[in-house]
Structures are given as C-alpha cells and as structure tokens.
Amino acid sequence: MSQPGPQIDLDTSLGYLVKQAASALRVAMEDVLRPLGMTITHYSCLELLAQRPGSTNSELARGTFVTRQSMNVLLQALERDGEVVRPADAAVGKALPTRLTPLGRRRLDEASAAVRSVEARMLSGLSDAEQSAAFAALTSMVRSLRSSPSPSA
User: Which of 11, 30, 91, 93 registers the highest number of CB atoms within 10 A of its CB?
Assistant: First the structure.
C-alpha cells in the first residue's frame, strides 16, 4: 500500500486562491445582476452576442460554460422576452444564429455597468502595473492548462 503524497497547503496554493477569487467574483456579480432580473449566464450570453453577433447556440454555450441544452432553454426565454431574435429556419445546416434586439442591448448596457463596477472593486487595490501583471499571469496559466495534456490522459 503506497503512502499518499504531500497534501496541498491551502494557505499557499495558488490554485486554491484562484478558485476563491472566482467564487468571490461570482457572488459579487450575482449580487449586482439579481436586481436586474439576470443571472451570470444571461448576462454573459448577451455580452457574447454584442461582441459576436450571429453566434450559434453551441458557440454561446461554450462561451458561457453551460451545456447546449441549458443554452437552448435560456435562448428560448430571451427570445420570448424580446431580448434576442433567431431565424425560424437555419440558412445552412441546423445552426440558428442569434442576434440582440434593441431591448436586449438596453438590458446588456445596464448589466455591463453593474459588472464593470464589480471588476473595478476587485481591482481597486492594484496599481495599473499590478493589474497588467495579474492579467498576463492568469492568461499564461489558462494557456498552459489548455495546451498541456492532463496526467490522466
């Protein structure tokens, strides 16, 4: 029977700290979006559509970190509420490109302002140089994790 390896020291684990930061960011975003009647996924979907008009259900699901089925349910609700439009039939294949409506744009503008306030609060203790360094470090971490195969692969 093998001995377990050394445990991770949670007080010094960068991975654990990143998870804590992500969790705190999620809670803060939920707090500012809830009064607007939005979830983070709802907001993220509108933000993606503003930046990538005509995105498909699959592209939106990947961009918001949910399943295609969950995204389809959300898109049906957003379409019903007049925030997005999708063609009745796909021009090519099965993909139905989605676009924001003027109402969706107004709702996004309000939500974006709330989310920007959370990000400003999160970064308020960092200088511009520290913000740039944090961005570069996190970008590098994501790139490394996405490009390196997992040990179990």
Answer: 30
Sign of CA dihedral 103, 105, 111, 117: negative
Q: How confident is the model at residue 92 (pLDDT cuts 50, 70, 90)?
A: low
Q: Note whether 65 and 74 are within 8 A (CB).
A: no
The token pair that represents 46 in the structure block: 């509108």
Tokens of 84: 């997005």
Query: What digits encode the pLDDT tens for the residues 96-137?
Result: 688 999 999 999 999 999 999 999 999 999 999 999 999 999
Where b means 16+ CB within 10 Å and e means fewer, 17-49 reads eeeeeeeebeebbeebbeeeebebbbbbbbbbb
